[in-house]
Amino acid sequence: MSDQLSDDTFTETQSLSDNEGEATGPVAKSFLRIASLGMRSVATSYRLKPGDVIACLEGELFFGNAEDFEAALDKDDTKFSLLTIYREGIFFEVLVSGALRCSLEFIEVEKVKEIREAFDGHVIHKKSEYRNYEVLRDIRRNCTIYDTTPTPLAGTFPPLWLLQNRLWEPLMAITLAYFISYGVSLTMFGLTYLLSAFYFSRGQIHVLRSYAQFQEKQMWVVVATRTIQEGQMLCRKLDPHCKFAFSHVPPPEPIPDPDDALAKKNSN
């Protein structure tokens, strides 16, 4: 458990009016909350949204102001910061690179105790164990989840990487390109293979995302978990009706039929 701070740190000495509005000032006794997102806000790329509460930074409860928070994130772009987000009663982690560049505000004092009590059952693991997973979802709650960590397989043997990720149409296209180029000459085949390997190595995340969008899915959430199973379990908490084609979790709850609910209401 990452709660290393003593109880006196959390005494609610500030009034509600002190915590409303912009999160400025040297000291804060309240969590930060995303107030709004701008057009160039980095938070949108991680699918954070207004109302999300910043509960922890690097596994520790964070009670600093907005300036301290953004300064802590605004470091080398090659380094990630581990954030714990509180959204609608659910805690989840996300690895972010650089400052979020969004408008932040303090949450109301009475909500601090509520979040701290809910946090008591939440476990944060070592940052090195986490990986970011992007999740895309369609209107029927069908989801695609994939690891955003680049893999060497995409650049060494593209067909196997496509097969591993079940990207059937791109697999058929690249296989056909290999056969055609091989029929022309070995030089053409080698050039085709090298170009495809370079493309999939550099753009593998874009390919995964584009294929999910080709299936009429839209970006839903970005979560940091240790395994894809944990990622699916977390998505199920955020949406009890979400479904996965290759599921590591039990079947979802059935979606209530609006007609049945209306008929039941009329019968009463």
TrEMBL record:
Chain segments annotated as transmembrane? 176-200
Supply the alphabetized keyword list: Membrane, Transmembrane, Transmembrane helix
Show the segment(s) annotated as Disordered: 1-24, 249-268
**Ranges of Acidic residues composition bias in the record:** 1-10
Q: What's the superkingdom here?
A: Bacteria
This one is known as Uncharacterized protein
